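Q: Entry one of two.
A:
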Amino acid sequence: MNRRDALKNMGMGFSAGAIGQFSLGNDPWKKQQQKKFAQATNGLPPLKITNVAGIATAPHGIELIVVKVETDEPDLYGVGCATFRQRAKPVLSAVNDYLADFCVGMNANNIEDIWQMTYQNSYWRNGPVLNNALSGLDQALWDIKGKRANMPVYELLGGKNRFAVDTYTHCGDGTIEEVIENVQEAVEEGFRHCRIQLGGYGSTAISGEPDFKEAGFGMERDRYMDTHTYLQGTRELFEKVRAACGDRIELCHDIHERIQPRDAIQLCQDLEQYRPFFIEDPVSPENNDWLRQLREKTSVPIAMGELYNNPHEWLEPITNRWIDFIRIHISQIGGITPAMKVARLGEWFNVRTAWHGPGDVSPIGHAANAHIDLAVWNFGIQEAPNMSDRLRSIFPGAPKIEEGYVKINEAPGIGVDFNEEEAAKFPIPDEQLNTWTQVRALDGTPIRP
């Protein structure tokens, strides 16, 4: 045997001995760790889903949908928000007629697995009805996991990055003078950010009488938007609110995708001098590519995403840095699980969060928003929830607003419960007719929100 072969054989023998002594199965460190954590892991055996139910209530005339997930552990259940008021009954059907059968028997511990399997189960995906149903399921599973771990959900997401969640409140009204009064009152209440609108979205309340109604076109309930009235009024609104309320208050505005992209660019340029905190949804998802030109033409911060439900809709605006705030609706995209992924993506591109939080989100949904807001580094701002006493009686533990901050109930899970007996006192209406999206131009051409 020559020297080279001898060294080779010696090396093989040493390797074999080393593998025998330090293999994963015989590693003393691993055995020590397994013993150390055995009690913790044995304390969380598989947790089977035994029932999934969609429950509707309308305490203020706004349809709210709750998903309740029950498990084989006595009294352990979770609740999530699946509210899509424009299509409330189809969401209820998606939960009760499909998710219930599909999810029973699954291990509630495996949130990501359940999300992925449910997401693809319908084959066609990214639709708002199924996404909302999935969101309610997802939030309920996070609620269960938090309760089982005896921790608020934000702890499971990485813990707090801030002591509370800063918000903006709505100060829109029919006249500029009324808006100014609303902003001043909000400042006195402790808010640092206000959204200002004149005459509602697109100024429909002050646009006058359209020709299409005189001609008998469309429906009596249809609203009219005059673009000139809206654009001129918004410029004057910012000028006068800024002059009356000072430079310290942060001002937001929602275009609500109701004008042409070229008009949105011009409006943002005109508003630069008043230093908006952000201008929301300047273009529709169909006009996403215009965001590139908008970014090149103005320094006004842009918030986008209320209508997004497909990941491909927000991917380019974030990764190309065309926007400053991602403003998606958590139940529209499928819950906490995908929202955390969007937030992490935004962090890499200096895009901050500004989750949608209107009145047609239940207190459970508002709490879910706040848990993410507390945990992610690139939090921007949160739309302030409005919690009435009636809502609190149906949703014990609902978040509170103090000095312009959302503060959550620091209970395990999402921290909000659902009183089904109280909710049953306020059934959703038989007629599902939402008209605020029905807007037309002077000649009757439909205007997309």
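Q: Entry two of two.
A:
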Amino acid sequence: MTTHSHPALAQVHQLGLITDDELDDAIAELDIITLQRNHNADEDIDVPELAADAGLVDTLAWLLLTDLLPQDGFLQRVRDLPRQHDGAALLERQQLAADALRQVNRLAIDTLYDEDVIDQWQRDAAHASLPGDRILASPIAALRDMLRQGTLSAQQFEALRLRTRQRGSELARIIVDAAARHARRERPAYARPGIWVRAALILLLLAFAARAIVSRQAPAPAAAPAAEQGVERRDLQQRAAQAVESARVPGAGADLSITVVQDGATPPAR
């Protein structure tokens, strides 16, 4: 087999998107596939096949999917294009690379749909926001990317996780469980339950402690009317409650109650 059997391979090589060695490896891989097909016509081929009339985008996507074109090396090659080309030549190569990346990423999204992990609307939304500058190397990476972009909300993820656990395929459960583990590891410390609540309470306690120390050191003020001593400081109470409320995990029940009173006043009865 020669490059003339797959002219798109030769053209991708001419554009400088694959090296001589990568071209030779691709031709050798196609030779192996042809031999397997001729000798074992009834058996499935383990690797994706490249159609003889495949276009440039399909060819480049095939190279990436089979790892005949190493993904990290290819992305670096694309980043280096502006140093080698400009104008229409640069745009042609960048557009081809972006389209091939989107096609690879589309297949990862389609796997999620085929395994009933996501529905049609979620699939279409993910297709509309496919990255063209990086590779979603697996359906797990695709699901994580949907969560990061907001294409899939946390509530939707929990719903599909429950559904997959109850009646999903083995592959679907593996994908969703792996995405959940990655999401927990990637979650920043400030977003974890309890951190903001504790921080808000600590700040409030420190503020009241400092106020108490200053009050003890300051001269005793004239006796205030009894009506004023028991007045609850509504402004401080509202600010404290808002701080804790904004710190709560979304969806968690309100389990804290804060009342702020003036120094020496008796808290109101509950």
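A: Comment on entry two: The two ends are 87 Å apart (CA to CA). Residues 115 and 172 are 6 Å apart (CA to CA).
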